[in-house]
Amino acid sequence: MEVLFSAHTGFKNGASFLDIVGGSMIGSETRVRFWGYSAASIPRIRQEQKSRIRENWLRIDGFVTEVQSGAARCRSQKDD
């Protein structure tokens, strides 16, 4: 895989590497998703490359929204 994308949530307590190794994220939940593309599938035309990046940025936004809304539902169900 020559191009790799990742989407993640749950790192807000880990603003720096020292935060993470210092234990600030103990007990927190993180979600990560990876996907990628081979070099052969990457468009050669600059505008098409920009379009591909935008599509994947929207995919990242969708993942974050999905996870956050699911977490909100879980919290509200626990409150009931």
Summarize the structure.
Helix content is 49%, strand content 18%. The protein is α+β, with helices and mostly antiparallel strands.
How are the SSEs ordered, and which strands pair?
Layout: E1 3-9, H1 17-21, E2 31-37, H2 46-79
Antiparallel strand pairs: 1-2
State the helix count.
Answer: 2
Class inferred from helices and paired strands: alpha+beta
Give the low-pLDDT segments.
Answer: none
Order of helices and strands: EHEH
Q: Distance N terminus to C terminus? A: 45 Å
Shape: elongated
Which percent bin holds the helix content? 40-55%
Radius of gyration: 17 Å
Structural domain tally: 1
What is the residue-mean pLDDT, rounded to a whole number?
87
Description:
The structure is a single chain. The protein is of the alpha+beta class and 80 residues long. The protein has one domain (3-79). The protein is built from two helices and two strands, in the order βαβα. It has helices at 17-21, 46-79, and strands at 3-9, 31-37. Strands 1-2 form a two-stranded antiparallel ribbon. The longest helix is centred in the last third of the chain and has 34 residues, at 46-79. The model has no long low-confidence stretch (mean pLDDT 87).
Descriptors:
80 residues; alpha+beta; two-stranded antiparallel sheet; elongated
